[in-house]
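Listing S7. Sequence submitted for prediction.
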Amino acid sequence: MIRQPSHLSYVQCNRCLMDTSDPEIIFDEYGNCNHCNRYFLRVRSEIRLPEERARALSAVVNRIKDDGKNREYDCVAGVSGGVDSTYVIYKLKELGLRPLAIHFDNGWNSELAVANIKNALDRLKIDLQTYVVDWEEFKDLQMSFLKASVPNCEIPTDHAITATLIKTAREVGTPYVINGSNVVTEGILPISWVYYSHDLRHIRALHNQFGTVPLKSFPTISLFSFTAHILTGRYRMVNLLNFLDYNKSEAIEKMKSELGWQYYGGKHYESIYTRWYQGYYLPKKFGFDKRRAHLSALVCAGQITRDEGLSELERDPYADNNLAQDTDFVIKKFGITQETLQNIIDAPNKSHLEYSNSNRFIEGSSSLRNYIRNRAKQV
């Protein structure tokens, strides 16, 4: 494998859409990158052959049903109003399971996301429990990540969702947490663009340095507790879409026709903050376009062509999604000025590893990560 030195000119993968906007990208002798090479390894390892999927899915569903007998709900599932989570809820109902839908409201829901959740759950007759975060606490934590100049400013939301799902599952008496994460359409994302959302030590470090509001009610789970829940079977994550022949465009059309679901314009754009963060903040400050990773996965999955992906990247998400208006909304909601935001964007970019973290433990636990993936595959 040949690492592309940072001082060399722009290079793009011959197979997917990833490029040297990931400073750690590596190309092989065929011009293919480490991301798509790893994608195909993960598919072979984590996705069953078509003839095995139905049997594996049936085994998982039957186990959840058996373990959930005499309980009101046999599993919990997070819903955001987006494609993957809504389709998961749709399939759970179709499979005869009794999920409790959980929504983490961080204050950034778009009206379309709220309508999608309501329409889907009303038609499917699935109960919903919503956790509304304390806005002053959450705003302060989100601003801490922005002030820290690190790339993954979605960590507060992602961490809180996991903590909320695990806590709620325990309360209703089930270990099964069903989610929409999947290898086929999400199997590419450079680690240099993100960081581990379950690193509570890192979250607290950034908040202690840049925050001012005590986190009294923000949902958290320590890395030790998170690991213990997995190892003891108290938390059994089920990546349902990995058991299906999941095609995103087909899922969208089915939800439109059967659930009254409406598309919102991009990956995770059901959240106003995520839409602004991915479409404006990341490209402006870091030069990262997360569409490149999302579309690369779809190219590798054969769900779009490479040319279609390249054409999509030529579209300006800023213009197509009213991100100028979003920026004004973000400034107002955070209670900051345009100058403050610009200073944040202009500040030197930082790696998450420049702040206190548990990365050494996480990275050193490759066997644990494999165990987690195998548990998600086998339940």
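Caption to Listing S7: primary sequence and predicted structure tokens for the chain studied. The longest helix spans residues 50-67. Strands lie at 2-3, 26-27, 75-78, 99-105, 128-132, 176-179, 236-239.
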